[in-house]
Amino acid sequence: MNEKYVNTEFLSTNTTHAMTWVHPLPDGRLFTIMSMQKSHLHHNTLPHDQFLFGRISGDGGRTWGDPFYLYTWPEKQAAMLYAGSMIDSKGHLHVFALRIRHLDLGKNILDGGIGYVRFDSCMGEHPMYSEIPCLDRYTGSLNNCMETSNGRLVIPFSTIAGHEDSKFVSSVIYSDDYGLTWASSNDITVVSDEENVESGAVEPIIMEMAENTLVMLIRTVLGTFWYSVSYDNGQTWNRAKPTKITSSNAPGSFTRLPDGRIFLAWNNVMGHPMQGIRYSFARQCLHGAISDDNLKTLQGARILLKKTPGDTDILHNAYPYTTLANDRELYMRTFEVEGKGGSRWHLEQAYLTKLDPGFLTETRVTDHWKEWVCDLPVDENGVTVRVTTDNAAYAITSFPYGVSGKIRMTVEGELPESCRILLSDCYLDRLNFMIHSRSNQYDDSIHTLYHTLTPSNTGVWEIEWKDGAITLTVNGKTEQTVPMTASAGLNHLAVLFNGAGELRITHFEAEAKDNRMETGIVY
């Protein structure tokens, strides 16, 4: 039960260089780029040559064939770091790479730009290389590429000019001749009092809502995604505004399904580890949601990949890239850092999974134990909660998002004196409640993320939230009502206590009465 994969099917894993974004081919096979590249920290070292290889899967991503040669980057004095790729409607394969020529981490000065190669077939028979002249600034990760309904290629980036006090801005490059020439849009800013170099408008993703109308979703350090809209097919973008989608400092991924719905994968997570003023780097779980109204609302917001026993508290399940597998299912490629297998930054582990997003429209779950995150064994009979490390006993689960709803759970054992129930609209890791792992300067912001209930006994706990209030009933007796001030809706429940004791959760059911999360996106 304590598997990484929740509501998804595991297909394969490899290093991030050996399995980058995956692309379905017309004959049903899958294609990915394998990159042999320098480290950005040693951009001017030997060997000079850096290569692109192709790999093919004939069984839906479960196994991959040997790499075959595609291309040698002509750049010798820079690190050419794979950033992303796409196959357009003409069958051209486009590969983008970040070119690092100078790096001074002490001053946050990074000099780089985008290198680009296009192949006139998916197998790279006629490669064409160019540097994109409209974008020669250091860029964060590329997270999606798209071709609009009228044939324009639009590629979203965040860039930093390179001077010491720079912050990231977001923009796009676009091409109306399938990559032969490119132009760039205006810069989009997100202003805050955060001083970290990663503040600003970071690592955007884009989606077409109607002809010429595009929406950009932007990673920020402000606790939610921000968004911008273009009404001229990406050429100009309006002022960025905040959404209501809770997110840590991490990017998301969009895919539109054949029936018109939009799938969103992102880290619906907040809290520790934190830096700066409010800068949450929490990425322990990855979530999914579905929209049937072009991002005006989302349904679901449930865990797809999770932290498991043995993973570090600073685990990253992040940087999703999703694409269609068929009319109903999606492929999702993510990477892991600080996992139990030893993954690290610059030694990231990639995972490929497949999912049917239909479950995200569910309004009720019962005894779905796989969705629980706990340091102790989770089995088909329930969840055990007791202290493991740092005096914290903790277990948390996600359920269908609801502006109103009900939960009924059966809890066995003698109730520890400090036992609390936490309710929130995001995943909150046990790291937030470990005494020796958090700094007092963040306490105020952490406490505003959740609602607290205090049961008097074990037995049957019933929780109902509606009309701005949350009510706890224990064994048929109403015990507590608290105002719902931390969020507009709920999709996570945690049980927490400190010190001796053990609880066993043997039944859990949750029902969302109003299951649409308002995103705040207007266009």
List the keywords.
523 residues; mainly beta; Jelly Rolls; eight-stranded antiparallel β-sheet; 41 strands; globular
Tell me what the structure shows:
- The protein has 523 residues and is mostly beta strands.
- The chain has a domain at 366-518: Jelly Rolls, CATH 2.60.120.
- Helix content is 1%, strand content 48%.
- The protein is built from 1 helix and 41 strands.
- Strands 28, 30, 31, 33, 36, 37, 38 and 40 form an 8-stranded antiparallel sheet that branches. Strands 10, 11, 12, 13 and 14 form a 5-stranded antiparallel sheet that branches. It has a 5-stranded antiparallel sheet with strand order 19-20-23-24-41, with no helix packed on it.
- The radius of gyration is 23 Å and the shape is globular.
- The model has no long low-confidence stretch (mean pLDDT 92).
Q: How far is the first residue's CA from the last residue's CA?
A: 42 Å
Residues in helices, as a percent range:
under 10%
Q: For the CA atoms, what is the radius of gyration?
A: 23 Å
- Average pLDDT: 92
* SSE-based structural type: mainly beta
Would you tell me which CATH topology of the domain at 366-518 applies? Jelly Rolls
Number of helices: 1
CATH architectural name of the domain at 366-518: Sandwich
Shape: globular
Beta-strand percent range? over 45%
> How can the largest sheet be summarized?
8 strands, antiparallel
Quick one: how many beta strands? 41
Which residue ranges are poorly predicted, with pLDDT under 50 across at least 5 consecutive positions?
A: none
Name of the top-level CATH class of the domain at 366-518:
Mainly Beta
